[in-house]
Amino acid sequence: MKTTPSTASTPSRRGLLQLLAGGATLAGGALLFQNLAHSAEEAVVIPPPAKDLPAGNAKVEKAIFAGGCFWGVQGVFQHVQGVQKAVSGYSGGSAATATYSLVSSGRTAHAESVEISYDPAQVSYGALLQIFFSVVHDPTQLNRQGPDTGTQYRSAIFAASPEQEKVARAYVAQLDALKVFKKPIATRIESGPSFFAAEAYHQDFLTENPRHPYIVVNDLPKVAHLKRLFAARYRAEPALVKRAA
After folding, report:
1. Band of the pLDDT at 22, cuts 50, 70, 90?
2. Which of 8, 10, 126, 216 could make an S-S bridge to 49, C-beta 3.0–4.6 Å?
């Protein structure tokens, strides 16, 4: 089961960015964590969804998930076989407020999210959901993930179609019925999705900054969990946004 992260000992992402902006180096910042409790959550072994979407004839489908800081969500899905692109961005609000500075206030209705373009012949929507609930984040936390708090860090699925919404709702009900987690799933399923890509410096952040303290503590373990629990779906070479562009 997932463990409760130590919010008292681990600064938030915003706090770390402010620390580094004040002159600390990434390597120096990492030293702050050597003697602190590890805040990365353990992955949860869960069954696949009983209901899934058929592959169909489409070459590319899209899915939008929000599970806390988008650095880690993007970083995990970039290592999933069949994912062609995973873009960090903002969902749930308007285009006018889809900027990091505004979304970080928690007053825009946006959540930090990731838009995934995937080949349904290689990975199904249900398989993406299984990874989302298992290793990407803790879906029982309400309006927070790890050291980050606020509605912008909520757990949410932005369904791109009625079919996606049905599969997502059925899977949440399935996992709750099986009591896979110690608490009920808090993930919101929001229809009528919107997505606005985040600023360029947020894209591929995990790959470009593997020594960033926040990444080391919170996100690299998630990629390791993906490799361990979903070995057949893991790809060593990430599907990078900037490389695709």
Report:
1. very low
2. 126
Measured in whole angstroms, the distance separating CA 32 from the mean position of its chain's CA atoms is 25
Backbone angles phi, psi at 85, to 5 degrees: -160, 145
pLDDT digits (tens, 9 = 90+) for 103-122: 999 999 999 999 999 999 99
Structural domains of the chain, ranges and CATH numbers in brackets? 57-244 (3.30.1060.10)
Beta-carbon count within 10 A of 191 CB: 13
220-229 vs 70-77: helix crossing angle, rounded to 10: 30
Query: What's the Cα-to-Cα distance from 103 to each of 6, 61, 109, 113, rounded to whole Å?
Result: 24, 26, 8, 11
Q: How far apart, in Å, are the Cα atoms of 71 and each of 133, 164, 208? A: 16, 24, 11
- For 79, which DSSP code? T
Non-local CB neighbours of 206 within 8 Å, separated by 6+ positions: 71, 72, 74, 75, 78, 215, 219, 220, 223
Four-CA torsion 22, 207, 197, 201, nearest 10 degrees: 30
Tell me the two tokens of residue 30.
């990492």
Q: Is 188 helix (H, G, I), strand (E, B) or coil?
A: strand
Q: Which two tokens stand for residue 63?
A: 């899915």
Name the pTM for this structure.
0.85
| Phi/psi at 101 (5° precision) | -65, -35
Beta strands 83-91 and 111-118 are antiparallel
pLDDT of residue 66: 98
Token pair for 234: 């893991």
State the catalytic residues. 69
Give the Cα separation of 103 and 178 in Å (integer): 35
